[in-house]
Amino acid sequence: MRKYIYYIAAFAALILSSCSEMMNDALDAEVVAPIKVAYKIDIKNFTAPDGSAATAPADWYSNLEVVFNNFSEGIETNVKVGADGVAMAEVIPGIYNITVRSTQKYNGKSYIINGLAQNVALTEAVTSPSDKYAISIQPLLGSPLCIREMYYAGSLGGYFRDQFYEVYNNGEEVVYLDHICLAHLVPEYATTSLPEWPAEDGVDKYAYAVTLWQIKGDGDDYPLQPGESIVIAQEAADHTKIETWAGFGIVDTSKVEWECWAGNEQRINEEVPDLPYVFWSGYINKMQWLTSVDGSAMALYQPGQNLEFGSDYWQLGVTTQKKVGSGGQQYVRIPVGDIFDAVECIPTSADLDMKRIPGILDSGATSVDGYYNGKSVSRKVIDYREDGTPIFQDTNNSTDDFEVFDSPVIRRHDVKRPAWSPWAE
Question: Domain 35-141 belongs to what topology?
């Protein structure tokens, strides 16, 4: 019995010794102290509704909130902006995405205030703001035209021919779709290694596209009334009935307004017009239209005229641009003021450090969190018009504006089809 008591006492002593060592180790561990950071928010002059130059009213700053996101640690810090335009935050040292997002009124019109500083190293205290620790924001007049639903990820079995993008009039006045381009932005695939553009282009002044498809018209051929949408599909077909090596599609896109399957005579739907390429960069297979099943960054761009690839319109430094140190390949250079809407799609919702486009266009991103899962993203409904058509959320922050659905639906929420559509009743 005494032997057992001895063993028990020895075991207890060992445990107490180990606990003591662990406590000492914990006491000796380095404590990560938070640092104070002063970050400047600078709202640039903008164009007022009457066309004159305008300065941001002082109360815009008091309504702004800055978000410091440390994705590696899963920490989010929200702070208000002071009257001097400076946000004072207390954060732990690390790498941050810093965002500003708001909608403000000026002379009865809504302006979107979005800014993003990406992958900023905050490792020591910043006692006063500087150009290094600042976000410069160009207010954008809210656009009535938006990308409403995107089905890009493909369905189970690896089928992707039923991809589609739906464009919606979210405003209160008619919008003419003539000359509107659907732009596939650079980089084509989400990445943390972003291209560097020439310094003269500035920061957040341009977006760059690898491919453009355009709705060509005379200026008033394609009116889109409030509450109406058009659908652009990769291939206009009933994909629920097409068997391929990979399985079956899940969407019937045979009655959309445009398809982008231009070149393969055996697969063209003669009842649905083609949306032509008007620009592409590098190699492209004209027999098909593909956007990444991991998610692409897409934009609605209005150049104000019908475009032709190879024409004098495309000039380096004006309408095209080359990446720094990338050789001779050119991309479409798009002023952000000519973009109606832009949406960033990323592989998973945890990949916000892979954002590609200026934060003033989209300060967030959306995702179906995978590929070949049959899911789509669709804007959230925030209200309804008197005629029953929905009004969708559009704050230029796709993280908040979109929700994920288990299956895609064309003209979800009783959205209307335009009267000129080949399939209008």
Answer: Immunoglobulin-like (2.60.40)
